[in-house]
Amino acid sequence: MPYSVKERFYSLQGEGLHSGRAAVFCRFAGCNLWSGRDSDRARALCQLCDTDFRGINGAGGGRFRDPIELADHLCQCWFIHQRTGIHPFIICTGGEPLLQLDARLIDALHQRGCEVAVETNGTRRAPRGIDWLTVSPKAGQQLLLTGGDELKLVYPQIGIDPADYAALAFRYFFLQPCNNAQLTENTNAALTYCQAHPQWRLSVQLQRWLNIP
Ligand SMILES: C[S@@+](CC[C@H](N)C(=O)[O-])C[C@H]1O[C@@H](n2cnc3c(N)ncnc32)[C@H](O)[C@@H]1O
Ligand SMILES: Nc1nc2[nH]cc(C(=O)O)c2c(=O)[nH]1
Ligand code: SF4
Ligand SMILES: [Mg+2]
C-alpha cells in the first residue's frame, strides 16, 4: 500500500515524556476528524488542530510506493544529521498516522534499527510493534485505544474532564495547553491542574518556545 506523507523533518520531540529528544518526524497526510480545510473547521469532529496535514507538498513529503521506500527516506534524514551511532528515533504523526501506518512499515523501520513512536487521536486500531504510543483523545470522539505509553490531553477541551481518563492503562499522563488565542490562560489552567493532581504532568510544546518545527 502506498503512503501519503505531508512532510518529513528532523527536530526535537517537543511534547510529552520524550520532550527534548532528537527525532525524525513523519507527518502523514490526512485525518479522520478533519479535512484540514479552514472552511470545514466549524463542522469538523476535531476543531482544535494546530497542524497543516493536507496534501503531500511539504519538505520531504510525497507518495511512497512501499514500506522500504518510506523507511529508507525517514532513516536517511536521521543519518544526514547524526554521526553518533545512536539508533534513529522516528515519530509518526499527522494528520492521523493510524490511517496509514501498518505493521509492514514498522517492521521495515525496525529492520533499520529504528525506534518507532506514534502520535494518535486514539480512534483507530494500532498495528503491532509500536515502541512508544501516545494517545491524545478528542472531545466527543470514541476512544478505541485505552492503553499505551502516554496519554496526552489537550487542555482545556469542552466536554473533557481529565479525571475521566486518569484510570486508563497508560504509564504517563500529560496535559498540553491548547494552543489558541487563549494559550496563556490555558497554560495557567493546565499548570494549576497538574499542581493539584500530581498524576498529571505538563507538556508545553517545546517547539513553540524554541521556534523549531
Ligand atoms: C496534530 S496531532 C497529530 C496526531 C493525531 N491526529 C492526534 O491528534 O493525536 C499531534 C498532537 O498535537 C496535539 N494538538 C493538536 N492541536 C493542538 C493545539 N491547538 N494545542 C495543543 N496541542 C495540539 C494533538 O492533540 C496531538 O497530541
Ligand atoms: N517538535 C515537534 N514535536 C512534536 N511532537 C508532536 C508533534 C506533532 O505534530 O505530532 C510535534 C511537532 O510538530 N514538532
Ligand atoms: S485528530 Fe489530530 S490531526 Fe486530526 S484534526 Fe485533530 S489534532 Fe489535527
Ligand atoms: Mg505539531
From TrEMBL:
One of its GO terms (molecular function) is S-adenosyl-L-methionine binding. Coiled coil: none annotated. [4Fe-4S] cluster binds at C31, C46, C49. Mg(2+) binds at T51. GO terms for biological process: tRNA queuosine(34) biosynthetic process. The keyword Transferase does not apply. It catalyses: 6-carboxy-5,6,7,8-tetrahydropterin + H(+) = 7-carboxy-7-carbaguanine + NH4(+). S-adenosyl-L-methionine binds at G95, S136, P137, K138. Gene3D superfamilies: Aldolase class I. Its cofactor is S-adenosyl-L-methionine; Mg(2+); [4Fe-4S] cluster. Pathway: Purine metabolism; 7-cyano-7-deazaguanine biosynthesis. Substrate binds at L12, Q13, G14, R27, T93, P213. Its EC number is 4.3.99.3. Keywords: 4Fe-4S, Iron, Iron-sulfur, Lyase, Magnesium, Metal-binding, Queuosine biosynthesis, S-adenosyl-L-methionine. Binds 1 S-adenosyl-L-methionine per subunit. Belongs to the radical SAM superfamily. 7-carboxy-7-deazaguanine synthase family. Homodimer. Catalyzes the complex heterocyclic radical-mediated conversion of 6-carboxy-5,6,7,8-tetrahydropterin (CPH4) to 7-carboxy-7-deazaguanine (CDG), a step common to the biosynthetic pathways of all 7-deazapurine-containing compounds. This is 7-carboxy-7-deazaguanine synthase. It comes from Thiospirillum jenense.
